[in-house]
From TrEMBL:
Organism: Drosophila gunungcola
Database matches in CDD domains: Sm_G
Coiled coil: none
Location of the Sm domain: 4-76
Any single biological process term in GO: spliceosomal snRNP assembly
Protein family per UniProt: Belongs to the snRNP Sm proteins family.
Protein keywords: mRNA processing, mRNA splicing, Nucleus, Ribonucleoprotein, RNA-binding, Spliceosome
CC annotations in GO: catalytic step 2 spliceosome; P granule; precatalytic spliceosome; SMN-Sm protein complex; spliceosomal tri-snRNP complex; U1 snRNP; U12-type spliceosomal complex; U2 snRNP
InterPro entries the record matches: Lsm7/SmG-like (IPR044641), LSM_dom_sf (IPR010920), Sm (IPR047575), Sm_dom_euk/arc (IPR001163), Sm_G (IPR034098)
Gene3D superfamilies: 2.30.30.100
Protein name: Small nuclear ribonucleoprotein G
Primary subcellular site in the record, as a coarse category: nucleus
Role, per record: Plays a role in pre-mRNA splicing.
Length: 76
């Protein structure tokens, strides 16, 4: 079994991020933490639904294997 290497996300800490998730879901929030499996903690998170509604969900933990794409919304 291969050893997990930590993702290169340190420079994105405390920056606003948009994450595209599997199933066509998307969330934006401030990156507060991550682990070697790319599980991430986002704060002030907003879930963007397919019907263009937005739900404020606060602080969330997102499992790394559900993340499809990561985009920084703040200047790094």
């Amino acid at each position: 079994m291969s050893k997990a290497h930590p993702p290169e996300l340190k420079k994105y800490m405390d920056k606003r991020m948009m994450l595209k998730l599997n199933g066509g879901r998307a969330v934006t929030g401030i990156l507060r933490g991550f682990d070697p499996f790319m599980n991430v903690v986002l704060d002030d998170t907003v879930e963007e639904c397919k019907d263009n509604t937005k739900n404020n969900v606060g602080m969330v933990v997102i499992r790394g294997n559900s993340i499809v794409m990561v985009e920084a919304l703040d200047r790094v």
